[in-house]
Write a structure and sequence with these properties.
This protein is an all-alpha fold and about 425 residues long. Helices cover about 70% and strands about 0% of the residues. It contains 18 helices and no strands. α8 runs antiparallel to α9 and α12 packs across α13. It is globular and about 55 Å long. The two termini are about 35 Å apart.
């Protein structure tokens, strides 16, 4: 009787914890949707050529459709996030809220784009159902003990590469100082930085140094000196390049680490909702910085995705402008991102679409299947892996970057190698 009563008590505690997480997730998801709706309606149309087209009204048919599809796709995702606890799961939830949430809201703001919205809903609903149905994560590797400075060979190699990149960036500081180091001169500094790189291998090295080497030194290298050096490196890279993404992605990796360790997945919709709310309030009193960050990293990505999807809706490109160019003719004068930039934004802008819109542009509705296969396959590959935080930059990148680009230029492949090396190292130190 005591054992049975204890089991029933344990089940009640588990159900109570699950019910509490479910309620918090739903409440903050609804608040995030309300906040982003208001932000898009009242703030986003004011960004000139980078603003959104305001055609929708509250409580219209499109408004209720946006709410229905958001809630419909959120239910299986809530079930998945309630049963898993690691950086992979938290990163999936982050990408969901950073893509489908603004897509649903932007649909009713624009009053158009139902096919692409349903395409996104089908992907996220299908992915969440597949992840829920898959086996649970197996036994995780033991905690990796800190390695002494001479023994962490990989950290030494990464720090050496960063040191030479650091010296190169120092040579660019005088040019950046001509414009100042504030947030209001980022575009001028970005142009100088692009000219200094000149294309080629150096572009790849800059991206890999931030997304792969810095993340390893901070979150896996376990050496305090290399950690501070990597942080200083990323700040210097932001100042000379003028690209806010180098600060944003590192904050996201740290945030995902906190969420996965605490199990409070509801912090993700809560954070997006709070940022949108603060952006709206501060914009009313004349402070545009928070609003510009929310608009840049959440709203504009969804806007570019809609415009890319509509521009190529009747003519999938099948990557004919890229690796399939020897086999399939390309009928446009420039790559899709520049075509969208010239057609809808300031001439010459490179309006890169995220992973969902890129698959839709190139493969149409068939793009769902390779994307689902990639995410499910990645989860199967990473079962029992350590160092999952090292792949979070890949998830952050695909919010506004095509998946093939994130895997190659963004260093996604190298991130997976790092995860393998950390997992192998942790098994060496496992205590059974």
């Amino acid at each position: 009787m005591t054992v049975a009563g204890g089991e029933r008590h344990g089940y009640r505690l588990q159900f109570s914890a699950f019910y509490g997480l479910l309620c918090r997730f739903l409440v903050f998801s609804v608040l995030a949707k309300v906040s982003i709706d208001y932000f898009m309606f009242s703030v986003s149309p004011n960004f000139g050529s980078y603003g959104v087209d305001l055609n929708g009204t509250f409580f219209s048919a499109e408004y209720w459709i946006s709410w229905f599809v958001f809630v419909f796709s959120a239910i299986p995702l809530i079930l998945y996030s309630a049963s898993e606890r690691n950086p992979f799961d938290a990163a999936v939830v982050l990408v969901y809220f950073a893509t489908l949430l603004p897509t649903a809201s932007l649909y009713w703001i624009r009053g158009a784009g139902l096919e692409y919205l349903l395409y996104c809903v089908a992907f996220w609903t299908g992915l969440a159902i597949l992840l829920v149905a898959m086996p649970k994560w197996g036994q995780k590797p033991a905690e990796v003990p800190p390695l002494s400075l001479p023994r962490d060979t990989l950290a030494w190699v990464f720090a050496f590469i960063l040191f030479w990149m650091f010296l190169f960036f120092l040579s660019l500081v005088p040019g950046a100082l001509e414009y100042g180091l504030g947030f209001d001169t980022v575009y001028e500094r970005r142009k100088i930085f692009g000219v200094a790189l000149g294309g080629g291998v150096l572009v790849y090295l800059v991206s890999w140094s931030a997304y792969v080497l810095v993340v390893y030194l901070i979150f896996a290298g376990r050496n305090i000196y290399f950690r501070f050096f990597a942080l200083f490196y990323i700040v210097l890279l932001f100042f000379v390049s003028g690209d806010k993404i180098y600060l944003f992605f590192l904050l996201m990796v740290a945030f995902i680490g906190v969420v996965s360790r605490s199990g409070r997945v509801w912090l993700i919709p809560a954070g997006i909702g709070l940022a949108s709310f603060l952006g709206s309030v501060l914009y009313r009193v004349g402070d545009v910085w928070v609003a510009s960050i929310v608009h840049r990293f959440i709203v504009m990505n969804a806007d570019i995705a809609f415009k890319s999807a509509e521009f190529f809706q009747d003519s999938p490109q099948y990557y004919s402008y890229s690796f399939m160019s020897p086999f399939i003719p390309y009928n446009y004068s420039d790559i899709p991102s520049r075509l969208i930039g010239s057609a809808f934004f300031v001439g010459g802008d490179n309006a890169t679409a995220g992973f969902l819109a890129d698959a839709y542009v190139n493969l149409g509705l068939l793009g769902l299947f390779p994307l689902l296969a990639f995410f499910v396959g990645l989860r199967l590959l990473l079962i029992n892996s350590g160092g999952l935080l090292l792949i979070v930059p890949l998830f952050v990148q695909i919010i506004d970057t095509p998946l093939p680009t994130a895997l190659l230029t963004g260093g996604g492949g190298l991130m997976l190698i790092n995860v393998y090396l950390v997992t192998r190292r942790s098994k060496r130190y496992r205590i059974d």
